[in-house]
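One such given next:

>
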Amino acid sequence: MQAFAYTKPASVADAAKAAAADNAKIIAGGQSLLPSMRLGLAAPESLVDLSGVAGLRGIQVAGGAVRIGAMTTHAEVAASAEVARAIPALADLAGRIGDRQVRNRGTLGGSLANNDPAACYPAAVLGLGATVHTHRRDIAADDFFLGIYTTALAEDEVITAVSFPVPEKAGWQKFKQPASRFSLVGVFVSKGSKGVRVAVTGAGPGVFRVEALEKALAADWSAAACAGVTVSPDGLNSDLHGSAEYRAALIPVLAGRAVG
């Protein structure tokens, strides 16, 4: 790992200013960035640490939404009684991310900004029709995820919080790779003010929705409805852990389990 500068700003404005420098990277929990740096896959000249910025951590439930600060850890979301009451599937998802060490360091905002194609949180954000708040604007989930490790964020844009609408029903199922605990396929389903939404992670180059499953569940919210849907393997991942056809077959199966 090469030498780099390090700053720990006390405000979002200062963090954004520091992040605007050439080849600077924002660091939250560091669970994705630091391993990439150790492997030489990322080589920022400076790191901007958000851990000293007040107001980026915490959970609030009000107005039919759960608002979670960007620096809130996975463990905090998983342990939150408020989240468990409002959106049990979201607490369940957070509690199954990585291992205990990752859950105690990794953050919601860091996961979304990194947008790993097999990460869990993008499925919840897209599956619930959440809104990503930054220090500049609000970004709808459907507009946030642009592809593998790519989002709508500008280089110096800081995620401050995410608002999840409280659904009538929601569920999460994850078929994990045993060593990494990332999703080979993960499916988040919900029914509420945003309609019926089905979001998939791990199966393709980024998180995506499955319209055929959404239509089937809108007509009949049941596992049987999911079983009648066939997902095309075109464009899905194929690797030593599973073929595109295998992942395609898993999607309706996991959706059915998520529905319950």
Summary: The longest strand covers residues 183-192. The radius of gyration is 18 Å.
